[in-house]
Amino acid sequence: MQHNRVYLDYASTTPVHPEILKAYKGLLDVWFVNSESLYQEGAQLHQLMEKSRAQTASLLNVRPNEIIFTSGASEASSMAIKGVAFRHLEKKGHLITTQVEHSSVTNCFKQLEELGFEVTWLSVDKRGCISMDELKKSVRHDTLLVSIMMVNNEVGAINPINEIKAYLKNHSHALLHVDCVQALGKIPVDLKDIDMASFSAHKIHGLKGSGVLFCRQHIDLMPLVCGGQQEFGRRGGTENALVNLMFAKTLRLALEGQKNGYEHAKMLNEYCIEQLSKMPEIELNSSSEGLPHILNFSCSTMLSEVLMNALNTRGFCVSAQSTCHSKSKAPSFVLKAMGYSDQRALSSIRLSFSYETTLKDVESFIHTLKECTQKYGTRL
Amino acid sequence: MELVYDHILVRYGELSTKGKNRKDFIRRLTSNIKLALSGFDQLTYEQTFDRIYIHLHGTPFDEVSPILKEVFGISSFSPTLKVESDLNTIKEAALMVANSTNGHTFKMETRRHDKKFPHRSDEINRACAGKILANTEWKVDVHHPDLHLRVEVREKATYIMPLVVQGAGGYPTGIGGKAMLLLSGGIDSPVAGYLTMKRGIEIEAVHFSSPPYTSDLAKGKVLDLASQISVYQGQIKVHVVPFTDLQLAIYKNCNESYAITIMRRMMVRIADRLAQRRNCMALVTGESVGQVASQTLNSMQTINDVTTMPILRPVVTYDKLEIIDVAKKINTYETSILPYEDCCTIFTPKNPVTKPTIKRAVEMESHFDFEPLIEECLNNIETVIMTVKKQEEDLF
């Protein structure tokens, strides 16, 4: 990124941490062998990768054989959700998720609906969180799986995962899958009583094409990618050994910076909210109880696309909806699910911060935002 | 054995005119061909009285052919093998051509331009056919041959051709002067540009860009379209006009129902002045009568009123499907339907006037002095030269 650009889209992806980059480059120069091969180079590489797995497991407080390296969180979520459901193709059954999941989760459930599974789509409140009452009413004796994201990627809403897992543990045999992508490295993630969880490296200053599925060892997933013995037979294909190797360090660095990062994001978030609340055309969509790293608002006088273009020309990188929907003209389905109007859902902007973001960055953002709305704002 | 053709013979005979026009025709055609093929740096050109030879120097014919097919003013062309004018050599070459072509039946056709050559056409035909029949499985079929092998005996050399490719016809672009095309991101205007070029008129394009209401992607799409139709004249100058401030002024000062009409009048005013600066003699638009509210005859009259230049509307009587057919043929359709905003879709009023009048438009424009903003548009034009895209970047 050129130095005159201000990047405020860390929920979409992050630059690679310099230490990760350096280590990875060093590895690329040396290692090309297949980590499953039997000669000494292969065995050495395999060992290194297994060490990464062990450290990742230890940082997440789980067992090494419960860590499956994937190409990213979308793959991890697909493996978990479809992998469980495909074991019940004969009798089908009932599944629960929310209306505001990441598209990788949402579209898995849509596919499963087409295959004959029954899916309950939990609604969310104005904060973007699910209601425990609705969840409790939705759980049935034939519910196979519940998938709920820890932190929403568009507005930063934090779901009551502790309550959810406590309830499910005592009242249901359903498995619980949690999409932890936006939570990892930002708030504590406790995997106790969670059956499966998806993680991504590139959201925490790691490499793209790198993710992890945590999956309890007793869960029998049907593999989506068939292949050899890799990843305990749960995911075929030659291991992306070096990328997997870097996951442990990426995670360690992210967790080490978590507490300070949170405080820093909170400071930036509070400054923005204070400034934005002075602008009559701005309406906040993120609740104050959400993750401070993500701040979503709508502008009543400019559509997302127009405001993003104006900001882009002036050097600011921001998103409207989730980047996975950025090419779509449809209103944000997350904001719609939160009960907002089409117009509000068509005019949202998402800021997302990291430890790299400075107060000066957000100050100049606010300044530029004012300039743009004054110059280009029209009645919609 | 893989046979490599070393020449392309380009014919324009049938369309030739006479006298000075003919010279201009040939000169313009040669330079258009060179521009269209500028991506191939091995090629050299030879211009003779009735044809142009392109020396390939190893460039594959199959790469050059699709581009050459699109150049207006070419009636046909052929990949050609140039050999010494000697009967044995000609026979060998004919056999080589047959051996490297797929098919079962062939026909010989010889023209002996050089009447000093000791063998008559018919003898040459028989000699070559005999050679091929004796050495291969090919059979003669003079009615529907798979391979129509043409031999041209000239004084300096003999040319052997396995096929004749139909050219695009029309006139060499530019021979009929120059016009300014109003290029939006839609389906119609690239087609209008293509049809204009086909009549020998060179075009430059003007595009109205309204950032941030239109995105860089929308501008990129217009440049892509320009690049796609640039193949017909080698390159196209695209003048991108920053239109936002003027558009906002219209929005603030004019009645909403007239916004589109007045916006179009402003576009024509700017295009008119730009055209004069660029020595263009006409404007070209993709308007088709009755398609949308702003393209009724009343609208056209009201918009046309601001210029004395002829406005060419090549697709004015086409219906949408006819335009789409041409757009698909010239490969602009897929780009045109990409969903980026253009400046016409931004301030789309709920009830646009379908029968605007000149009087009302003039009256509304009198509320505000638009002249400085029009000049500002003209002074801040960004001009981009688009050519056929080559994908030879190191990264790929």
What does this structure look like?
Chain A has 380 residues and is an alpha/beta fold. Chain A has a domain at 6-15 and 257-376: Aspartate Aminotransferase, domain 1 (Alpha-Beta Complex). Helices cover 39% and strands 14% of the residues of chain A. In chain A, the strands form three sheets. A seven-stranded mixed sheet of chain A has the order 2-8-7-6-5-3-4, sandwiched between helices. A three-stranded antiparallel sheet of chain A has the order 9-10-12. In chain A, strands 1-11 form a two-stranded parallel ribbon. In chain A, helix 2 runs parallel beside helix 7, helix 3 (73-85) packs parallel to helix 4 (103-114) and helix 8 (258-276) packs parallel to helix 12. Chain B is of the alpha/beta class and 396 residues long. Chain B has two domains: 7-166, 2-Layer Sandwich (VC0802-like); 178-387, 3-Layer(aba) Sandwich (Rossmann fold). In chain B, strands 1, 2, 3, 4, 5, 6, 7, 8 and 9 form a nine-stranded mixed sheet that branches. In chain B, strand 7 and strand 8 form a beta hairpin. In chain B, helix 8 packs across helix 14 (371-379). Chain B is elongated. Chain B starts with 6 loop residues before the first strand and ends in a 9-residue tail after the last strand. The model of chain B has no long low-confidence stretch (mean pLDDT 89). Classes of the chains: A alpha/beta (380), B alpha/beta (396). At the A-B interface, helix 9 of A face helix 7 of B.
